Amino acid sequence: MRQQSDRFLFNTLGFIIVGLFALLCLIPFWLIISGSFMSQEAISMHGYSLWPTEWSFDAYKLLFQTSQELIRAYGITIMVTTIGTVIGLLITAMTAYVLNCKDFRMRNYFSFYFYFTTLFSGGLVPWYILLVKYLDMKNSILALILPPLLNVFYILIMRSFVSAIPEAIRESATIDGAGDFTIFTRLILPLIKPALATIGLFIALHYWNDWFNTMMFIDNERLYSLQYYLYQILSKMEFLNSAVAQAGIATANIPSDAYKLAITLATTGPIILLYPFVQRYFVQGITVGAVKG
Amino acid sequence: MNAIGKGFLWELKKHKVKLLMLLPSVLFFLVFCYIPMAGIVVAFKKYNYIGGMFGSPWVGLENFKFFFESGQLWQVTKNTVLYNLVFLIVNNILEIVMAILLAEMAGKYIRKFLQSAIFLPYFISWVVVAAFVYNIFNYEYGSLNNLLKSLGLESVDVYSNPKAWIFILIFFAAWKSVGYGTVFYMAAIMNIDSETYEAAEIDGANIFQRIRYITIPALIPTTIILMMLSIGSIMRGDFQMFYQIVGDNSLAFSTTDVIDTFVVRSLLTIQEYGMSSAAGVYQSVLSFIIIITVNYIVRKSQKDYALF
Hints:
The complex is a heterodimer. Chain A is mainly α. Chain A has 15 helices and no strands. Chain A has a domain at 67-246: MetI-like fold (Orthogonal Bundle), CATH 1.10.3720.10. In chain A, helix 3 (58-65) crosses helix 15 (256-292) and helix 13 (226-235) crosses helix 15. The longest helix of chain A has 37 residues, at 256-292. Chain A starts with a helix and ends with a helix. The mean pLDDT of chain A is 90. Chain B is mainly α. Chain B contains 15 helices and no strands. Chain B has helices at residues 3-14, 16-38, 52-55, 62-69, 72-104, 108-119, 126-137, 143-150, 162-190, 194-202, 207-232, 239-246, 253-256, 259-268, 273-301. In chain B, helix 14 (259-268) packs antiparallel against helix 15. Chains A and B meet through helix 1, helix 2, helix 4, helix 5 and helix 6 of A and helix 2, helix 5, helix 6, helix 7 and helix 8 of B.
């Protein structure tokens, strides 16, 4: 009986505390959705609210009419995300494979070479000068693809996935005369598919949400990534007005306050829609990282 | 050549495919991490574009002097360290509480749903969080003031109130990352041997006692590792968060400016290469010293928890 009532108390506490926090996590999303369906008059009169007094689609109409630049920003982000994820993932897996070869005695030096970069850095300024002055990446799409390409922690997580593959598989393939690259592409890659999905999603999410590299290196509006384009719309009234003017619409009576929220939703939609399907891969990646410490 | 040299060359030859496979990542970190490390010399130079990183004239400690005398050093250091300490404490407590509750709670589907809900913010970019902040705290239209007005209370103007930003930042820092940390702690809980719990239950321990005497002690290693990682980066502010949430609101800089936002602003808006790189070196060197010291202390007392 005691046990039962303690259980009940625990569950009630759990639902209240976790439920409250979950509610706080979801409310901002709902506020964005609800606000984006409000009319400009309603927002000026009452401000954003939890439920629109009357549903208005003005913001979405405007979004549709000015969609040209949004679509271009989408295109840039999709391209950068795809190229960066594929290349980054391959290099990460290749590096992780070599760092796992027990017969490769130099691997510890290389591990240290990679790990040290997480302990010490030259700071932002030399990095910026290097990319702009010496690698000529100002206004180059490479500035969006290259800097986030590799991450030491992903290499380490990938390495613990690879280390779960029995060493005997590699040994027998070596005896059969297969080289390291063949072993990697033919044997290892198919065996670490779940790991590729996990790390690939982490890399892709990073690219998708990146605006920092656009801010640092891109002045050309045609090369703006999606999140940076959103940032410009949110933070600069002129930017919003010019987007509207370019679409040939009078800027006087635009539903700008609902528009900001509609465009926020338009850039975040794909992530929220994909989230239920990809969540478990992220959980798996964090779990492997946690167990390995 | 002696035997070691021969052995080394033989190793290289034997593993030439492996070395080739490592080449892309080795080059990547050489270019994007190691060369910038050498670029630290910029902090000791009067940088000009023509001379570049290595050809500009030396000025000794002039840039550091400028940074120290600007009066910013103490403020940004204090803000960075204090924010990180508060985030570290608040986030870890929330993560542990959420993980323990979620791991033991009844109702499979509701548990899954709640966990998904608190993990969702991790996937959103900081720009979108800035849109949330605008939506909630905007003085004229914000949801918060809307709510206050409907309750008959007075509107608040957070934009001219530097203290308010402390709480907004703490809230969104937790909002964004507690879900991630919860998964981390839940992984540690799943690793606890279930027989321990069963034995305790048979001995009559109730659920609170089991948590107190089994779960919490079992989470200590994970907590220490996460704390160490956070302390190692205590001098590094989360640039994306501070920059997006606070924006260019200079009224709030006294309580919200961290080293990272200070560096980017000095670099991009006033093109002050010398001082911003001096600030960067100050940050990197202190971070490095802190990591090495913390790791040394942990290794002396609890060897298993050391990072390296």
